[in-house]
Amino acid sequence: MVDIHRASAMEDEILEWMRQYQASAILGAAAQLGFFEHLSKTALDAATLARRCRCNARATRILLDALTALGLLTQTAKGYQVTPQYRMALSPSSKQCVLPMLHHQANCLRRWAELPMVVRTGHPAPCHPGVAGAQADLRAFIEAMEVVSRGTADTVVRSLNIGPVRCVLDVGGALGTWTRAWLTAHPSSRAIVFDLPEVVRLGRRRWARDPLRARVQWVAGDYLRDPLPKGADLVWISAVAHQNGREENRRLFRAAWVATDAGARLLVRDVIMEPDRSRPAMGALFAVNMLVSTRHGGTWTFNELQEDLEAAGWRDVRWWRRDEGMNSVIGAVRVPRTAIRGGANKSPSRD
Description:
By secondary structure, the protein is α/β, with parallel strands linked by helices.
């Protein structure tokens, strides 16, 4: 006999999962339209905010009421304002600001809405700029990476106990959040941040007055097309491997091998999947994000990354740090060898 109460609870749970997009869409829209920049400073009525954000007055009021219902805003005699407990997180001037990640997740949400077609065709969702424009989307993505790393970078780097580091090459280093953690943990070291030209411009601007700026070299390029800078004894590949397919990762790992000398180390920070690919759960969901966003990206198991690192010439591949999220770390060592077996090409060693 069917337990009616249990069946009803299961139905409610499924429907609640389906409705979760609503709060995400509301929050993302408010972030992209600039609502929180204004309402974290002062209370405004709907009409005034609509004018400042160049929005429709009726639509603005409805969105503000929904944000109030969620508890993110409160209403006063002067209008709507950010609820005090969320003000630091939603204020652009705060070090705890999460607005770039909200903006980025709103962009992700549009791609996730295309998931049925992506699964049918195998092609990522079309990438259309958000309401703030393509440049704002890029900046939000780069700054969002800082949002998710700034609270953990120092802890993760120190937990690795890697020993002396002379120079770290931060591949895809964005605004240098992890570079800073390495420089702080190893005061006598220097760093090279390698990223796309538009990202390097943002990074240089961010570090223009930083006390550590003299220890950082910024190099622009594409890691899948351009040689990596030489001179590092540690290559740090952080939250990059999931953006690539396995052949692309082999090319990246090979480029890192070519750019270093024997004895250099390489560390890959990413979400690492168990063999069944459903654990950790965060990684299984993140693979869907890569499915809708990239042509070949995904989340990879330890064995897959080990195979790809060894195909590129790296050895002594170990799982140095386990984590349920993006802070697992796999390490490898560069040893002299005369050829690469198992990779796309064979080439002589520099050693």
